[in-house]
Design a protein that fits this description.
By secondary structure, this protein is an alpha+beta fold. It has two domains: 59 residues, Orthogonal Bundle (434 Repressor (Amino-terminal Domain)), CATH 1.10.260; 111 residues, no CATH class. Helices cover 37% and strands 25% of the residues. It is built from seven helices and seven strands; from the N terminus they run H-H-H-H-H-H-E-E-E-E-H-E-E-E. The strands form two sheets. The chain has a five-stranded mixed β-sheet with strand order 4-3-2-1-5. It has a two-stranded antiparallel sheet with strand order 6-7. Strand 6 and strand 7 form a beta hairpin. Helix 2 crosses helix 3. The longest helix is centred in the C-terminal third of the chain and has 16 residues.
Amino acid sequence: MSFAARLKQIRKEKGLSQEDLAELLDVSRQAVSKWEQGAGYPEVEKLLVLSNRLNISLDSLMAAEIAGESSGGRAEVTGTILITSPHENAVVSCYKVISSQKMKTGKEAPHFALFGVSSGSASFWGEPTTFLGWYEDEEQIAKEVGAIQEAILNGQPSYELKYSVKVERHWFGMKILRD
């Protein structure tokens, strides 16, 4: 969930109007409206006041933005959650999920992949990573990562993949199986 959506959600949960929040932060109502529309961000000092006054961590408030920055453009979410992948018959306890960049494949093949990173000791080869699922397009993998992030933010202990696709593997590639 983006900062804009998260701010609006938290403001409503606290029973505050945009005007009430603006008054708490000593800014205009238009500034709060702009933030909630995703047209800008508060200054760092205002983010700290916002975090303090609404009793929410900056990590949870800025999760989507932090993930986007740290992943170099790939979607990345952090937290601990048990993820079930029905098409890959996998159940993995992950503290992070990472989506691939677009893969150059055929028309009928998936274009994105999702991986779960398990907590554990990293080796020379990196952190323990498990393949979770294939995705037809960027919209589908973005929905999945967003739903996982939402589950983590809401404290859900587990999540089952909803947007992954089933594939049929061939010698030199794969094809999405349609229902």
